[in-house]
Design a protein that fits this description.
mainly alpha, 75% helix, flat
Length: 305
Amino acid sequence: MVRYFIKRLGMMIVALFLIMLLTFTIMHAVPGGPFTNDRKVSPEVEAALNAKYNLDKPLPEQFLGYLKGILHGDLGPSFKYIGKEVSDFIKDGFPVSAKLGVVTLIFVLLAAMPMGILAAVKNGRWQDMMMMGVATIGVTIPSFVIASILIYIFSFQLNILPTYGLDSWKGYILPVIALGGYSVSYIARLMRSSLLEVMGQDYIRTARAKGLTETKVIVKHGLRNALIPIITVLGPTVAGLLTGSFVTEKIFAIPGLGSYFVTSVTHRDYMTIMGVTIFYATFLMVMTLAVDMFYCLIDPRIKYE
């Protein structure tokens, strides 16, 4: 287990380096810079700003300087907001995104698991077709379309829910549905297919032959093995929900990490883009590693040599 953990940690470090290199290269390949969009900045001032932030140096030297800062825990300053550090945006935005993500995750699990189980138990019946029909709609429609429809119906037409912010519990309803709609649909479909596959195994037939009730067969013998694919998906899903959705947070004017990232891309704030990307990638890798470690608890047959 320890050797496996060390090996995965080394792979994470290499992956983070490649992500930083790729993001850095793509950002600087785009014409212009963080100060070219501001019409009030003269060429002389722009040159001075580039010199201040070392943007006038060769790209390899800039990248090495950024790596040195990362090793010291410094994500660098924001080019758009003077006096602001990238770490400040993460400290301010991540708690908001994480709070919304936790509520969304609870909604996803409470909605998706019963949907998938009911569809599998009632396979081929009207309950199965209804659940999978709803899940298919949720998978195919983008989140920003769902958000727009929800705002139009519940905010503009019915005027019962707010269109922005998280000032009250009502403010969470529309963002949670828009943010978790895809995850609910995908996990429900995966739960159904996984449980159907497990329920066709020989040990399930043996359990039924022993006289166990169908509820005990499903809960005690079926669900435990059917949860392994669900746990695999939950790692990236949790990471995505907790770090915020770029589109959903922008639509509902939620000051989360995703909203800061969209703003930084619009203004070509290189440091903020790099910092948020690294933070998201690290969080995703940690959650994926946690899921791999959790396999052993779900299925004792899985061992990491």
